[in-house]
Request: fold
Amino acid sequence: MTDKPVSIKAPKPLRKGSLVRVNRAAYQHSLESLASDESLPEYIFEGPGELLFVQGDFGQVRWRMPVPDVWFRVDQLEVWTE
Reply:
């Protein structure tokens, strides 16, 4: 048998400067969502926000509007695509 191993591309890790949005499915029912306001603004799920800083499992996101920067778990963020 000469089956070639299937190469699966790992998702690109998020890094400083990446354009991101919050993954609604990953955020719902998380500990962070239970501790936050129930009515979150839609712009965090639509994006884009710029990832300013990554420290451990968390990333600081700045939105393109006059609102404060917010920290999210990196596993709750996804790369923004138009």
Observations:
- Residues 19-79 form one domain.
- The mean pLDDT is 85.
